[in-house]
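Sanity check

After download, print the first record. It should look like this:
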Amino acid sequence: MLEQEIIELAKTKKVIVFFDMDGVCAEYGRPGEDKLIRSNAPGYYFNKRPIQSMLETMERISKIENVEIRILSNCYFPEQKQDKIKWLKIHAPFIKLENITVITLNDETYTKETKDEIKGNYIKVLTEGVDAHVRLVEDDHGIIKKSNELLSKLLPCFRAEHISSLMR
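Expected structure tokens:
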């Protein structure tokens, strides 16, 4: 189980754990959701239902000495980014603001083929020069696969994991 692995790794070196938001610590995947996201429906991300069991796990992990919890999420519009940050302040106050990265996809240059690589590219930049074990907890198998392909060569202490690896 990933939580036990993090505890063991933290005994010897800093551990940075990046968590996705949608589908990991907030509900994701309801019918019609894509239309609301693409139309930039006001308050859409702010009103998402928290996945309480995962937030409790994240908070427990955040209390382990030598472990740093971060959020790495994406959205399409700046208003959505602000909604996500407000949501995290309420539902995950144990995460420091400086440890929250929300990528605004409309501000990035990517294609449908390269979208799965964007989080791996951000992790590479966010952890540059840091000696740590790095994990990404994600629900999207395409992002997990591309992140592992990209970062396992650059960061030997990196691994992307599916959210199920933290479920008890």
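If your output differs, re-run the checksum step. Summary of this record's structure: The mean pLDDT is 92.
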